[in-house]
Here is the input.
Amino acid sequence: MSRLATSCGAISVAAAVMVGTVAVGGAHADIRGTAPCTPYTAILAPGTWETRPDADPAVPVGMLRPVGDGLQRQFGSQITVRYTPYAASAFDQGLSYAESLSTLESRLRTMVGGLCASTRVLLAGYSQGADGIGDFATEIGNGEGPIGPERVIGVGLLADPHRDPNTTLSLGNPQPGHGIAGTRSQDFGALTDRVRTLCADGDLYCSLNANASPFLAALGRVLSGDPAPIAALVPTTTDPSTLIEQVVKVGAGWAATAANLPTILDDLTSLPTIIQTGDVRTAHEIASNLNIALAPMVQAAAGVDLSLIASVVRAATAVDPSGFTSALSVVADALTGIDILGIAANVGQVQETLWRAVESLNRNDPLAAASDVASLAPTAVNLASSVIGPFATAVRGDLRVAAQTLLDIGGPDSVNDLVQLSRQGVAMANFYASNAHLDYGDDAQILLNFLGAQADS
Here is the structure.
């Protein structure tokens, strides 16, 4: 996978906050956005953080700016181009993603419903904007919109989190999978032949394979839809953007650790014994392997509320029919009760000491090596008594079964997707954000060509 996008969450907030945010500058933007009755009107919906509720609809913004500018050059005074002002939020501004999306859909109905009867309409959206435009086009195409479908001549969806290649024709390079938020419950009805979708190579938010990455798919559906399953779990003092980023990183750590459980257990069991025998080189090799196997969990768990994240993962199980997220929840519960960081600290100390012992042997100084090994006795005893027993019990019980379930359902790719996403340092809270999707410049030109041809036909 050449590129990975990042992902946003949705945490419930008071409805009054949403209403207040929408009201600020709302009427002002509509008044400024009053369009003349031109033969064509293009309504473009920017992505997350590319606009705001009181933005001037006539001012080009965001990823769709080249599309609007291109249409203006092509049709001149024959077209009016408007960029939909809305919250465009993902956690910030007091709004969740789902609530922000509702402000877009409300504004679209107002803008399009107020158009003169003779203008023909082009619709396009990017990221969160594509989410809203896609839903809006679905309403129009099925006779539920403010205008009839015969007035819409073209719809373009760039990086649509609800992308469904089975019901929508694609422009550019076809991508596998579906949008991370799942597919829409309806197709585009009468507009189906006038809708095109574009998704960049590797953008997980519009080309996620739910079978290979069921945890990401479940998390995407929970966070971009109804946040109720997790809202009650999150303390009011928690920074939601940080939380969601941690869910992905810790989820990756749990999955990778689970995949390495047999090796971790075998090495933990044998390490104290080999230290006692004085086999310095073998003990050092085992300690090095253990550090590598434990690294994903250590990197993910530092400074994190593992119990809270386990609760969020547990909440996502309800929308994952594959069972992968449920199995990951079992792993989370088991590993949360095990002091992984303590184990890693002990193993790290052992590895460092054994490295000095190996260097002593390389200098033909066996006495110094023996002294280093002798200093490890308390650590080795601690590993044997307080660590290995609880860890072995967990591995041989539910944890082992859950780890095998993860691999059986998704295969190694499901774990690798999470690990790769985590290693690239992405922030899940940037879900659908303007800087979350990569290299859409060429796709914007392809979209412009399609919309321009639709108006010319």
